[in-house]
Design a protein that fits this description.
By secondary structure, the protein is mainly alpha-helical. It has one domain (25-117). It contains five helices and two strands. A two-stranded antiparallel ribbon has the order 1-2. A hairpin with a 6-residue loop joins strand 1 (4-6) and strand 2. The protein is globular. It starts with a strand and ends with a helix. 18% of the residues are buried.
Length: 120
């Protein structure tokens, strides 16, 4: 297993190492990142799977309730996460088309995402 710290005598995991994302952040930003990474039915998918999106948001909000204002913010943070990926792609001179398509999809489907998350 990568990025793990284990004891010498057993396979017991003592900790995880993530130098890229290991920092304190706003909980809603963490939720947006999780949605950006995990709410698609496949790694190459442009669209978010609304059922997966809904399940992740409901699970999160069962511990940390989300009002309609925070749900709208999460959707915008989701788009901003995509823009960060675009900026990093520019810095690395990589293809932008998939990242831009994903951001545009989120913005184009903002009302559907908010509805799936529970905003009337």
């Amino acid at each position: 297993m990568r990025n793990t710290i284990v004891t010498e005598r057993s396979a017991r995991i003592l900790g995880l190492v993530d130098f890229d994302l290991a920092h304190v952040d706003a909980l809603l930003a963490d939720l947006a990142y999780s949605l950006y990474v995990s709410a698609r039915s496949g790694a190459q998918e442009q669209a978010l799977d609304l059922d997966r999106f809904r399940a992740l948001v409901r699970g999160y909000s069962s511990l940390f309730p989300l009002d309609s204002r925070r749900i709208r913010l999460v959707v915008l943070l989701l788009a901003s996460r995509g823009l960060l990926v675009v900026a990093r792609s520019l810095a690395g001179d990589r293809s932008l088309s998939q990242s831009l398509d994903r951001v545009e999809w989120v913005l184009d489907h903002r009302p559907s995402l908010e509805e799936a998350a529970g905003v009337a």
